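Listing 4. Sequential folding, example run.
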Amino acid sequence: MDFINDELREEILEALDFTVNSGYYDAETIEELATECLEELFEYDYPELASPDSEGIRKIIAEIQSQAPTNTANKNYERLRDIFDQLNRERIIAVDFAGFDMSEGHEDVGVVFQFMKKNNIPRSGYCFYHQQDIERAMNPSFQNLNLAFHSTDGDEEQGLIVGKRIVELLTEADFTVSWDGTLEHRICIQNFQWDKIYDDNDMGVDRAIRIISKSNLS
């Protein structure tokens, strides 16, 4: 990124880090999202500069990829995904990458909830993390992942049961967990280095519905 100043360079690195290094997008999608992001950034914040061309964007992506921490050997994401699958089998709605923030996370949970309601599938609670949570986990100075949870009907006693079950599964999987045992604070997986690698597996709402449907038929 020799063609821009240090301030803009850091802004670009921060803006694209999730897109490039989260492990949720393939190479083609990364380039498409990066192009859209940079076009908007340059148009509104740096109109005096020309947005990078395709070759420049690919160079930026390569630089961001090179700065990502080396993936850990204990496969944090895969272990967490297995836990979310188990929660869904137990009819606790568990959605990974549930939108951008808490509001969108609850919307994604609501989609699964409505599916279960329509198909008369009992549901006892939910668990999710959203993009902002992932971004914090990707930050080398933070590396904690927060999980939202509660019952599906607002029952506080059931909400605590859900929280305890989540903590139990995380602990069994050798994660370091911090939770004060209340509904006021989310469950935190400490020292969680984000290490997801892109694959063709389903995720989010689609994965939750698939696991729940399969479990309901068995």
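-- end of first protein; second protein begins --
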Amino acid sequence: MSNLYDLEYYYKMLKNNSLTSKAISTIRWEFIAETNPRVVLDYGTGVGFFVAFKPENVTVDSYDIGPFPQTGIKHKDYDVVCFWDVLEHMPNFHEVHPYFNITNYIAFSVPLLTPNIDLRTWKHFKPEEHLKVFTEPQLDSLFAYYGFSKIKSAYVECPPRVDVKSFLYKNNKR
């Protein structure tokens, strides 16, 4: 999977998304603002827009499988772990499960399959890249299994995006 996310991909994403990146990053920071984050992990940071537009009083560790600029995972505890446009790319949650135990909140955005959409013609149906397709009830069940409850969900990034929903879950074990 990692060969998809090489430097060519990085520069393509940087070029294609720079105009909307500040708006989307601002929306994401506003979406998690109620958690009063001080230390955040941006897992799957990609080009790094979320980090670039962070509030001054927040420390952000960034991690990605690609050769993109990143800090690495430096802290043992986080207020929020973010998976913006990440979970649909993962074959399973085994790799990220340890981070569920060291955070108060998980925030993420994913393309969300809604009723009456034909999967085969859906814009986000990309079998080589999107390894998972989610519905909201599936996500609620999955995160409940890991001990999280949903705080909120909304299509805050749409427009400019389509069918991408953001979620915030609270860790019930902390």
